[in-house]
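Budget justification aside, the reviewers requested a transparent look at the raw inputs and outputs of the sequence design task funded under Objective 1. We therefore reproduce one unedited record. The lines immediately below are the structure tokens for a 101-residue chain.
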């Protein structure tokens, strides 16, 4: 006679009803968040043009590190400055580095 004497253990912490809540974003922060995500994606798409896989991986890690460094920035003016810098740097990378590939 075979019976299931023990089911898979279910961790209560995994299914906890307590969740971490973040403070609500203002409209400006919401828009800036979308702009940051869009810029990050543009950078990642740009790296697809690099044929050498180790170089591509290194550049992606560098990009990720840069974005992570400013992840907690909450001052809207500072975020605008960082987005402007990222945009300029992206244009430089797009026009200066990759035409020779």
């Amino acid at each position: 006679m075979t019976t299931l004497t023990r089911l898979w253990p279910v961790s209560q912490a995994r299914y906890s009803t307590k969740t971490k809540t973040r403070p609500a974003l203002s409209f400006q922060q919401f828009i800036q968040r979308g702009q940051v995500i869009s810029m990050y994606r543009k950078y990642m798409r740009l790296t697809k043009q690099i044929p050498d896989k180790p170089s591509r991986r290194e550049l992606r890690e560098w990009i990720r590190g840069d974005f992570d460094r400013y992840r907690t920035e909450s001052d809207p003016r500072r975020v605008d400055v960082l987005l402007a810098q990222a945009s300029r740097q992206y244009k430089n990378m797009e026009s200066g580095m990759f035409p020779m590939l």
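Residues 1-12 have pLDDT under 50 and may be disordered. The two ends are 68 Å apart (CA to CA). Computational costs for records of this kind are itemized in the attached budget.
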